[in-house]
Amino acid sequence: MKHLEKITLVTATAVYAGYLIQQAIRTRSERLFRLAAGESPYERTHPKPRMLKQA
């Protein structure tokens, strides 16, 4: 039974580590795409207030 618990723990740890790596890659690629599009990192964290349309 101990062997099965170790396998389960290692599997769960590997899945979680894979998820964290995937999120890091996704975040990095999103930043690169935004920089390539000309958006500065400051704009991402400090968006401009939207102007109200005047009729």
Topology:
Elements: H1 2-36, H2 41-45
Search tags:
55 residues; mainly alpha; 2 helices; elongated
- Which percent range fits the helix content? over 70%
The portion of residues forming beta strands comes to: under 5%
Low-confidence stretches: none
Average pLDDT figure: 86
Kindly name the structural category.
Answer: mainly alpha
- If helices are DSSP runs of H or I spanning 4 or more residues, what is the number of helices? 2
**Which of globular, elongated, flat, extended, rod-shaped describes the shape?**
elongated
Compressed to H and E, one letter per element, the order equals: HH
Distance between the termini: 73 Å
Largest sheet: none
* Rg, alpha carbons: 21 Å
Q: Tally the beta strands.
A: 0
Verbal overview:
- 73% of the residues lie in helices and 0% in strands.
- With 55 residues, the protein is an all-alpha fold.
- The model has no long low-confidence stretch (mean pLDDT 86).
